[in-house]
User: Fold Glycosyl hydrolases family 43 from Chitinophaga rupis.
Amino acid sequence: MRSITALWLFLLVVPAYITGYAQQRYIIPGATWQDTAGNPINAHGGGILYYNGIYYWYGEIKKGSTWRVPGSTWENYRVNAGGISCYSSNDLLHWKPEGVALQSDATDSTNDLHISKVIERPKVIYNKKTGKFVMWMHIDSQDYSYARSGVAVSDKPEGPFQYIGSVRPNGSMARDMTIFQDDDGRAYHFYSSEENQTMHICELTDDYLSHTKNDHRILVQQAREAPAVCKYNNRFYLFTSGCTGWSPNAASYATADSIMGSWTAHDNPCRGTDADSTYHAQSTYVLPVQGKKDTFIFMADRWNKTNLEASRYIWLPLKFDAEGKPDIWWKEEWTIEGAAL
Ligand code: DGJ
Assistant:
């Protein structure tokens, strides 16, 4: 009897231990990633801030049932806007839930943050001059005709963030977006504009809370979205997807020697099997790993369009060859080289 109980304990406990162990020792693209409380990480379309030795991951909370907006002619699947989550980590493997950084609102349907709205692709940067954490995000109506960028601010990285409002930068439509903070402290807003046909880069003001007139059109009529930016060897790299709703497509990238200079479009940075669908995912951010020169993580979302809550994360190493050409290869599981695990 005792040996049967022991066997059951072994069968129940050991696999769980192995799974948990594997999950936290390796990055496993496409798996369900659990936070340190044992719940699936809910941070889609996300971005990462590194501040005071800690990584903060912000993302869209996609919770509850997914439905298709009635009358939509495209695959407009959505969930109630759940606000923006925040998780913290010091090794990029163990993520502690920090709660809801920016709350959505269930009462006022005119509010940008109402659950009926779109709150997507949050990116947070820290402003050294003001001591504030600034979050920019895509704000939209459920038919995506509002096409604006929202901004919120906090004294602490984990929030709570106070929503300030939304704009069409310099009067231009703004949907998918990212923020890039350069080494000199200047910050730039990359956003899909002009009905998603043309990307814009706009320099933010010194406090990062509004747009300057330094607004530049790039990738004109290329129809790119899901921008993710990094700087390598003094060159700027912009990774994007095509515009096919929640369905994946081939990524491409563009480069520039000066961020507000001219950008050259290039082909797909992904290699090997499933490169033509970005491994069934869509870019959201490129993370420079701190303290490891030239080590970058390409972060993407594998959307599950009919069950958005079940969307998964694809993180892969982004490497550059001797000519500065980026390479992204699929990996079943991997560790960040030399990282303390
Ligand atoms: C593609 C965008 O990249 C996503 O963030 C989201 O807005 C979907 N479209 C909606 O279909």
Observations:
- The CA atoms of residues 112 and 139 lie 7 Å apart.
